[in-house]
Amino acid sequence: MEKNKAILDIIRDVNSFSLPLILNNFFNVLISVIMASIVGRISVGAIISTEIVDTLNYAILGIAGVGTLVFNIESSKVRDNNKMQFFDWFKSCMLVNTSIGLIIVIMVFLFSRIIFLKVYGIKGSNLEIICNYSYLTSFSILANMVIFSFTNLLKVNKKTKHILVAGFIGAILQITLSYIFVNYILNGNQKVLGVGIGSTISIYFQLFVYFVVLRKEIMTAAKIKSSKKMKMLIKSIPLVVQEVLEGSVFSVLVITLIARLGDSELSAYSVSVKIVGICLIPMYMYCNSLTVLVGEYTSKNKAMEARLLPIITTSLTFAFYFVLSIILIINKEFSITALTNIEDVQKNSISILALVIIFSSFQILFENSKYSLQSLGKSTFVLRTTIIANSCTLFIMLAITYAKALSLVLILMLLAFNYSAISVVFFRRYFGIIKEPVK
After folding, report:
1. Cβ-based burial of 318 (10 A; exposed 0-12, middle 13-18, buried ≥19)
2. Which parts pass through the membrane (predicted)?
3. Structural domain boundaries of the chain?
4. CA dihedral of residues 272, 275, 280, 285 (deg, nearest 10)
5. How is residue 438 annotated by DSSP?
6. What distance in Å separates the CA atoms of residue 367 and residue 314, rounded to the nearest whole number?
7. How many Å apart are CA 317 and CA 285, to the nearest integer?
8. Residues 119, 125, 126, 131: is their CA dihedral positive or negative?
9. Which of 38-47, 221-230, 241-250, 322-331 has the largest mean confidence?
10. Among residues 97, 114, 76, which one has the least CA distance to residue 292?
11. How would you write 158-195 as a 3-class SS string?
């Protein structure tokens, strides 16, 4: 009876935290499609400029913002029993993120031109356009770094509905402003700057909304001395390295091996992975809840809840993934046609989509176990284990490639096995730390 009540309470906590974030992310996917439609009607140069800059900005934010997880993990432990430390963590997070954002803006103004010229080979008027677009959107990075602090405060306080509302209003504003600038104010290739202006204004509007919503918390934090900045930076190092190695190096190397199989395999895999990405949106939101709730449950000595939590988030993620996958597989012709109009790519993507979805599901185990363990402060163990496992997997892939026996199916199987093996290690370690048995 006690266990059943705990399960229901956890499901309520997890869903009240995650569902607004899931809706917000699905809404963001829709907005990105609309924005791509606006850009796609300007010029080829506009498409290239926004793709290059937005991809770089996304990577920078993904790496620079990952340290905010430390705030989630540490502040959730003291939220209820030590308000002074809680606001110390919040102020430290805000100062660190703002400083990083300012450094990124300065770096963009100093080095973006030479990067676009030397690395991407962009010259002439296109170079001016992409640089100006990059300068504009660099201020969005600064705003986003500050917003990370605010949204994570809302997450820790379980007020994620505010994130959904702010994101919805900001997105509508972004589309409206971008459409007006592109169609009625700017001309030629300058129109792409309208997209940057619309994006930047909307993100600062969201920042203003968060200031209003969190004005009391910000005033409280302003009166407290910030003493956690260095501790936050040190604790962020394993998380940042994990993000770089797992999200960049490992992924790039895997894509490189798939590319050696041929253009048809790579293009079909790329399209299929985009569809899988839609199915995986709930996973990251449920994993985000782990960074808050694990700390909260352990700080309150709720061992049973702490043990049940990752099991429940994993189960809920699989449920969402299954439903979304079935819908997209049933409508795979429509889904894939929406992403590409190249017949050969469509045909190959349709043939492998179900396979990619099945093997990608093992990532759910990996991410839930990883976030659970990181939430207990075991980021260094997570990093070390991931490096060893990924290195072994890559070595096997390279050996099979050398033997000319590598195939897309084999790569997917090895990745699934890799995720499964790591998740077993992580879950064993997690449940070993939370030792009280579930009754």
Report:
1. middle
2. 21-44, 56-73, 94-115, 135-154, 163-186, 192-213, 233-260, 266-287, 308-330, 350-369, 381-400, 406-427
3. 18-226, 235-438
4. 140
5. P
6. 9
7. 9
8. positive
9. 322-331
10. 76
11. CCCHHHHHHHHHHHHHHHHHHHHHHHHHCCHHHHHHHH
Closest CA to 390 of 242, 246, 241, 237: 246
Residue 201 has which token pair? 């204004």
Close Cβ partners of 262 (under 8 Å, ≥ 6 residues apart): none
User: What is the rounded (10 degree) CA torsion for 386, 390, 393, 395?
Assistant: -130
Q: Please state, in angstroms and as integers, the Cα–Cα distance from residue 116 to each residue in 188, 228, 276, 397, following that order.
A: 21, 37, 31, 33
Torsion sign over Cα 209, 210, 216, 222 = negative
Which residues lie below 8 Å from residue 102, measured CB to CB, with a gap of 6+? 142
* CA separation for the pair 38, 35 (Å, rounded): 5
User: 386-389 contacts: CB < 8 A, separation 24 or more?
Assistant: 386/242, 386/245, 386/246, 386/422, 387/245, 389/418, 389/421, 389/422, 389/425
Which pLDDT belongs to residue 60? Answer: 83
pLDDT on residue 438: 40
CA of residue 31 relative to chain centroid, distance: 16
Name the residue with tokens 């010029």: 43
Confidence of residue 235 (pLDDT cuts 50, 70, 90): confident
Length, in residues, of the chain: 439
What's the number of CA atoms in the CB half-sphere (13 Å) around residue 199? 28
Q: How far is CA 402 from CA 186, 377, 399, 405, 409, in A?
A: 53, 39, 5, 8, 17
pTM score, two decimals? 0.81
Token digits of residue 108: 């963009």
pLDDT digits (tens, 9 = 90+) for 161-182: 888 889 889 889 999 999 999 8
Amino acid letter, 153: L
Cβ contact 69:233 at 8 Å: no
How far apart, in whole angstroms, are the C-alpha atoms of residue 428 and residue 378?
13
Within 13 Å, how many C-alpha atoms sit on residue 98's CB side?
9
Which residue from 315, 290, 314, 294 is spatially nearest to 306, judged by alpha carbons? Answer: 294
